[in-house]
Amino acid sequence: MASANSTSSKSTPMLKRAAASAYLGSVIEYYDFFVYSVCAALVFKDVFFSNLSPAVGTLASLATFATGYLARPLGGVVFGHFGDKLGRKRMLVLSMFTIGIASTAIGLLPTYEQAGLIGPVLLILIRVVQGVAIGGEWGGAMLMSAEHSTKNRGFWASFTSAGAPTGQLVSALVIAAVLAIMGPEAFIAWGWRLPFLASILLLVVGIIVRSAVAESPEFLAAKARTPTRRIPIIAALRGQPVTLLFAVGVGLSAFMFQGLLTTYSVAYGVQIGIEQQTILNALSFSSFFAIFGIIGWSRLSDTIGRRPLVVAGAVLIAVWSFVLFPMIETKDGLIITIGMIIGQGVIHPMIYGPLAGLYSELFDTEHRYTGASLGYQIAGIGAGISPVLFAAIMSTTDSPSTIPLSIVIAVVAAISILCIWRLGETKSRNLSEQSPGETQPSTETGTPPAATEGQSL
């Protein structure tokens, strides 16, 4: 009965509104997040860590970038808990408000020269708050689309993910414009603050749009059928621990590759003498193509399945990690742009796009916000630590070769292939029904625990 009620309460107009809200909210959230990533690579070593050598300052700056990713699983647990208990909509409004205010506050921080250690300490604290907020954003926004849909779930859920490169594109364009108008010296001196301060304007628009979306019908149906529910994080860890572990592994290669494309490539390019504008232009073009790559591959996953695309994407990520660095090292703007477009606009979305539909199909409604957010955000740590890891590897070796970095990406890609193979196909799963629990995989068919539970998920 709950399943029928949840299906009958869904409507196409509200689905479109939910997808639009998820997309716009994700654009705003990731605009804030990627403004920080670019500034961490280009500016913060001179603003907040000017007392350190350039190499150490860059490493410290990228480390503050990583703290946001480390805080995201906490956000997934906290926002997921209340999202599973009180509803998706409330948490989405709160997460957007929090990250918007945090981003604006970064634009008002004193530098190291102005306040000493107070500046970098406040930067780290605000970055943690920002990370917690965005940790609760993706799962809720994705579920609002997925749980309002009756078919083509991967397509509708992908608008949340498509907001990430859009936000990145907007942030790159804003930073590029400010750089072009002011010049590098003025940008480092004070111009970097402007993109952060602009967040308050985007926040107002986002809150208005998000407030107009109705609560998830799947959540309302689940609340009606089980009014007394367990603590979501406990339910996820006890009921579907293997699924959660594999969910992390599936997304890890995409996020490690994302950290390479969007953050470390910027720092590495500048380090070897490429102009900042050249790298930012390549990042902007690749972000534009990524929007359509995410939506297109996600729609295809509704037809052929999530698993084939994730496997193909992981293989290509492993291959392209060996190709991208030589393309960057040519210092040719066109070649760099082509490398970034293929990497971020074509290959990365093959995994990243279908993740939204996949994660919505892995967990029961009663703890889906928590489970999906936790799996996604733990995997997302890869995007935060990979730039730091790559910088550390390059700083501890006398050889300028980037082969060790490519090997790391290839190994993680192999992990993703193993995990999606064990999870099995999920595209036909019913979100309204309960999982009977995880069982051991069949040795004859290779059907994994998640695939077994997925028939009634």
UniProtKB/TrEMBL annotation:
CDD domains registered for this protein in UniProt: MFS_ShiA_like (cd17369)
Pfam families reported in the protein's UniProt record: MFS_1
Gene3D superfamilies: MFS general substrate transporter like domains (1.20.1250.20)
Membrane topology: Multi-pass membrane protein
InterPro entries: MFS (IPR011701), MFS_dom (IPR020846), MFS_trans_sf (IPR036259)
Cellular component per GO, a single term: plasma membrane
Keyword annotations: Cell membrane, Membrane, Transmembrane, Transmembrane helix, Transport
Chief localisation class: membrane
Molecular function per GO: transmembrane transporter activity
Positions with biased composition (Polar residues): 431-446
Keyword Zinc: no
Domain Major facilitator superfamily (MFS) profile as annotated: residue spans: 18-428
Subcellular compartments: Cell membrane
Recorded superkingdom: Bacteria
Entry annotated with the keyword rRNA-binding: no
Region spans: Disordered: 429-457
TM region(s), chain numbering: 21-44, 56-79, 91-109, 155-182, 194-213, 233-258, 278-297, 309-328, 334-353, 374-395, 401-421
PANTHER family from the UniProt entry: SHIKIMATE TRANSPORTER (PTHR43045)
Protein name: Major facilitator superfamily MFS_1
